[in-house]
Amino acid sequence: MGITERKERERAEMRKMILEAARHLFLANGYEKVSIRNIADAIEYSPATIYLYYKDKNDLLYALHQEAFGKLIEKFKPVFTVDDPFERLVRMGQQYIHYAFENPEMFDLMFIMTAPLETLECREDVWDEGRIAFNMLVQVVQQCIDAGVFKHQDAERASLMIWSMVHGLSALFLRKRMMIFSEERRGKLMQEAFELFSDTIRKGL
Amino acid sequence: MGITERKERERAEMRKMILEAARHLFLANGYEKVSIRNIADAIEYSPATIYLYYKDKNDLLYALHQEAFGKLIEKFKPVFTVDDPFERLVRMGQQYIHYAFENPEMFDLMFIMTAPLETLECREDVWDEGRIAFNMLVQVVQQCIDAGVFKHQDAERASLMIWSMVHGLSALFLRKRMMIFSEERRGKLMQEAFELFSDTIRKGL
DNA sequence: CTTGCTTTATAAACACTGTTTAGTAAGTTT
DNA sequence: AAACTTACTAAACAGTGTTTATAAAGCAAG
Description:
2 copies of one chain form a homodimer.
Chain A: H1 2-29, H2 36-43, H3 47-53, H4 57-76, H5 85-102, H6 104-112, H7 115-118, H8 128-146, H9 155-174, H10 183-204
Chain B binds a DNA duplex (30 and 30 nucleotides) through helix 1 and helix 3.
């Protein structure tokens, strides 16, 4: 029965086509401003058709959510080749911030938005990819502890602290809360705050 | 002419009435889920009436935005009575987190939402209150530097670092990103991360 | 080859949303 | 009492996410 196989393939293609249109529109205009009708227009199908392939708009966001974490994990992988364990950690932080700046909409979806989770927070696998990404951080922090860079022994606790700082810096900027600083200072001040944090944890953690 | 005065008073009362209904509904149901019609229903007026007192929904959010910053500043004031400068800083951080947990919707509006700013980011006074709150942090950090608790000399740079960490911790929790930790661990881990950060900056900053 | 069944797609509708407009009714001034 | 101003609202506009009934196409069996 090659027909059912082809149907499955066609279905997967259609899902991919919808997701690609959605991603494209989302990245260009932001989530809020993109409607199901916009996506339907882009793929030249009726709005109702989308509901045959994705449960609702949140389901569409969830698919992108998974995709986005996959990309962050890919960005994290190369840091493990860095020799010095502390430098490894610094690079990881830089990758996080870099990702946030390059893909603000994706970052939003991964770490700020509440929408795609509300209906899906019951799902246990929602944060599987997120866990993997966080565990990569814990791993690097553990390597710093093992190398004697950090005196503090709880890698997970230290990781949450580091994640919070790097995330806070990114989130405050992306959500335009750095507007309290003059435009010329803004960028440099962020860089300096990150470096200051690096120095501080190297000395005090 | 007492009539124009009374009219002004009535207008102010109406604005207050709308804002109170809006705040009440927003805090109870969240911003997204509250419509102008809901607010209109609550005050027993037509939706169009609200537009005679507030430009649009963003203008309403902006009014609450100002109010919310006023409340945070009030929460910051008592910390200046604390004797030890470092303890003063720790208390300030705790107040920030406390505020975030007690008034998640307000916190959202102040530090996470983008909506009320989009149309208002041209306004220069949008972040006046935010600047005041941040300057209070800078002040306390400067006091720590003066007292010799911190070796690092740039108070604003250090303040941004501290703000980022405390904000990141709050934002990640409020946006349910701590779901990657088990329910029993979550609260304690946050507390520990905050304490670890305090210890780290005391030693290394 | 035709009949019956399943899948796929859509037009139209439903119940909303923020916002604008035209018109009414009440209050104020001349 | 007539003219003007303000406060308010019903209705409409253009949009949203989502559901439902219906039509058309693809496929399997008689």
